[in-house]
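[step 3/7] inverse_fold.run input=structure_tokens len=311
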């Protein structure tokens, strides 16, 4: 059975990753897009919102992939589930834990598959790193996720609004990998957030977790090549380093062979499995850690952030 899918929100990630991944996967057919600006994929009908789409194409859609900013996803996903559609959520799945818990309950009540996708968990090294760490005791964890917000989020005002996650928008990718590979749960003990005086969300964050020496540093003010690494030492002195957002893996300093990156094709392969089985797959751990960090946060005001002309 071909899954007739619609993309809800047609921004950078919908264009760059969802459209080509759907086109390459024989389980799916892209049949519609919703976008307030009217942008769509070549030859694919576009509607202002999900309500207009459902009214115009009754019985012609099986699933939606929601690629809007997170703060508006709950209402859209709830409507889609109520309309009998399977739902794929971009990361982070919703703006709050309450919203995702509500969607899990709705999906179960109406028997529709719900998948909260975490693309970084599909990075080529994640399974190998999880296998290497299974049954070990971790002594040290160091997450470093530094990049230039101007390069990766040019003009995206929503990242600075409540529910926009700020530096946790990329940082949650690191947390999604860490929670997938670590043999134990990450518990936040302290969080230091740096907030531009004119913005609602952090531009940098330092987290300390329970454990001997577990920490994470996220920073959007970084210049030059991004640094997205996770380093782990076990009590048996094994040293594991995931580099380049999980595209490379070093074990005791030696490069581990890895497949090429194919995160979004892998997300769609998983979603096809879930739709076929009528099952949901929702991992809230990365979102739970960000929520805990925001609960415990000490906040420091830093200089205002303004886009430069043309951004
Ligand atoms: P984006 O380029 O700003 O696109 C978001 C789209 O959602 C916009 O084009 C907009 O389309 C639509 N939208 C915005 N506000 C909306 C609202 N209130 N109601 C309905 N639609 C709305 O953002 P993005 O980079 O694609 O990111 C979207 C999500 O994907 C984020 O959660 C992000 O974390 C995730 N993601 C992004 C990347 C990346 O590299 N960019 C990578 C992985 C995951 P219209 O104005 O046309 O409606």
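[step 3/7] decode complete -> sequence:
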């Amino acid at each position: 059975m071909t899954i007739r899918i619609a993309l809800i929100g047609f921004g950078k990630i919908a264009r760059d990753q969802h459209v080509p991944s759907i086109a390459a996967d024989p389980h799916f057919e892209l049949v519609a897009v919703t976008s307030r600006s009217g942008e769509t994929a070549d030859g694919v009908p576009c509607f202002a919102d999900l309500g207009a789409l459902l009214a115009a194409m009754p019985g012609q859609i099986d699933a939606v992939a929601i690629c809007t900013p997170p703060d508006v996803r709950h209402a859209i996903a709830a409507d889609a589930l109520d309309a009998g559609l399977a739902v794929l959520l971009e990361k982070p799945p919703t703006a709050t834990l309450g919203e995702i818990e509500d969607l899990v309950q709705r999906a179960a009540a109406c028997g529709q598959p719900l998948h909260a996708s975490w693309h970084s968990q599909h990075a080529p090294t994640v399974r190998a790193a999880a296998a290497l760490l299974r049954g070990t005791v971790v002594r040290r964890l160091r997450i470093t996720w530094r990049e230039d917000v101007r390069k990766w989020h040019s003009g995206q005002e929503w990242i600075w609004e409540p529910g926009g996650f700020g530096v946790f928008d990329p940082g949650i990718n690191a947390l999604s990998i860490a929670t997938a590979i670590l043999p134990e749960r990450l518990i936040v003990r302290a969080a230091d957030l740096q907030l531009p005086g004119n913005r609602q969300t952090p531009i940098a964050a330092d987290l300390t977790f329970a454990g001997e020496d577990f920490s994470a540093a996220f920073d959007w003010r970084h210049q030059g090549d991004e640094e997205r690494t996770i380093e782990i030492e076990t009590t048996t002195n094994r040293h594991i380093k995931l580099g380049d957002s999980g595209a490379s893996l070093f074990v005791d300093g030696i490069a581990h062979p890895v497949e090429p990156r194919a995160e979004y094709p892998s997300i769609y392969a998983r979603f096809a499995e879930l739709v076929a089985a009528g099952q949901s797959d929702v991992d809230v751990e990365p979102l739970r850690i960000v929520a805990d960090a925001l609960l415990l946060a000490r906040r420091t005001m830093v200089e205002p952030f303004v886009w430069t002309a043309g951004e």
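[step 4/7] annotate
The pocket of NAP is lined by residues 9-14, 35-37, 39, 67-70, 72, 90-91, 119, 156, 169 (CB under 6 Å).
DSSP finds nine helices and 15 strands in the chain.
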